[in-house]
Design goal:
Length: 386
């Protein structure tokens, strides 16, 4: 499947993110269960998974016929595999737990097809399973689950259009229904078959969810970081969300890296380097989620920081370590590998080692073009980097 089609599948899947959290505002669950859910959710985001599972086990014991505890128990496995996407260690447990959620929901929907709790949690389970299939590139399965989850979200929107939790899903759809075709024009003909979006309204809905939603506020903040960092290209706004997420959940490697990426763009250099050295140290300490991919990224940014401080020899040490990691992790030259070797060439130019710099640029030109890497390498080959 083409990248643009894969992105559309992910859009259909991701709009269901808010569905399970919305349902909690209508579900028949006393404050004891709700308190346990809230505690467990916090544990999930701070990757304290055993503690989260214990909380959700209590919920399932108190409310064995309610899907909330089962769904959030499945989210533990989702975050495990989402943080470590190159391992399939958690796939089977995730799929089994999602199937349990669907079975519990279907029992509620057998007697009442409009049961709000059953609909919301079923939509959420299908949405996350669609995202799983998209990650594993099983696109037909992802599209089927994503479309069903999308239809459920539209039904939920009719039931409670002003609910702040459901605004996560509607905000995601409104923003990305416009932003994705803008970035990937091949999607424009496909999006004709879906309702129109509104980027400005989508951001407002996401911001409302981040401020006022009871269960969806963290996911809304995550999406707002992605919106501002990847699409709006506004690192200052992105840093507002990345910084707050990392402050609240300091053990989550996803939030740690988000904060670090914003620091790279905003500076100062010392702060940027401190963040990525912390990331690398956590890799050496074998902290959960700080894997080889994360270490490679840290090596690159520490090398970049040393380069910006004119410490060229130390920069080269980190960048050559990054290059080694790239070769171990990927069969073909990755974007990181290409950027690393361009940077090495630039450092050699700054050191006056023109022959070594040219060899680096020729190496990049021999690989596939990646985001204009050929034009950049050719430019520096013709005129030394300064």
């Amino acid at each position: 499947m083409k990248p643009s089609s894969r992105i559309l599948v992910c859009l259909l899947a991701v709009v269901a993110l808010s569905v399970p959290r919305v349902s909690a505002q209508w579900m028949f669950m006393k404050s004891d269960g709700d308190t346990l859910l809230q505690q467990g959710i916090q544990y999930i985001y701070n990757v304290q998974f055993d503690k989260a599972i214990a909380k959700f086990k209590e919920v399932k014991s108190l409310y064995p016929d309610h899907p909330a505890g089962y769904f959030l128990d499945a989210m533990v496995e989702w975050w495990r595999l989402n943080i470590n996407r190159r391992t399939r260690e958690y796939d089977a447990a995730f799929l089994q737990k999602i199937e349990t959620v669907l079975n519990v929901c279907d029992k509620q929907l057998e007697n009442d097809p409009k049961n709000i709790t059953g609909l919301f949690f079923k939509g959420g389970a299908l949405g996350f399973r669609a995202r799983f299939h998209a990650v594993r590139e099983s696109m037909i399965n992802a599209a089927n689950d994503g479309k069903e989850a999308f239809d459920i979200l539209m039904e939920c929107k009719k039931i409670a259009p002003g609910n702040h939790d459901i605004m996560l899903g509607t905000g995601i759809y409104n923003y990305f229904a416009v932003a994705l075709p803008e970035k990937y024009p091949l999607l424009k003909p496909v999006m004709v078959f879906f309702p129109g979006g509104d980027k400005f309204l989508g951001i407002l809905q996401l911001q409302a969810a981040a401020r006022k939603a009871r269960y969806a506020y963290v996911e809304a903040e995550v999406v707002l970081f992605q919106v501002y960092y990847d699409f709006e290209k506004d690192p200052r706004k992105a840093m507002e969300y990345a910084g707050e997420l990392f402050r609240r959940y300091p053990d989550n490697p996803y939030f740690h890296k988000a904060y670090g990426r914003c620091a790279v763009q905003l500076g100062p250099i010392d702060s940027m380097e401190v963040v990525w050295r912390d990331v690398l140290n956590r890799f050496f300490d074998k902290r959960f989620g700080y894997d080889n991919l994360t270490a490679r990224e840290a090596l690159y940014y520490i090398g970049l920081a040393r380069m910006r401080k004119n410490d060229y020899e130390m920069a080269l040490k980190y960048l050559y370590k990054c290059d080694e990691a790239c070769r171990a992790l990927d069969e073909d030259p990755s974007g990181f590998m290409i950027k690393t070797n361009l940077l090495i060439g630039q450092i050699y130019d700054l050191q006056g080692k023109r022959d070594l710099a040219v060899k680096q640029y020729d190496k990049v030109l021999a690989w596939s073009d990646n985001n204009g890497s050929h034009a950049e390498a050719q430019r520096y080959r013709q005129q030394p980097y300064r």
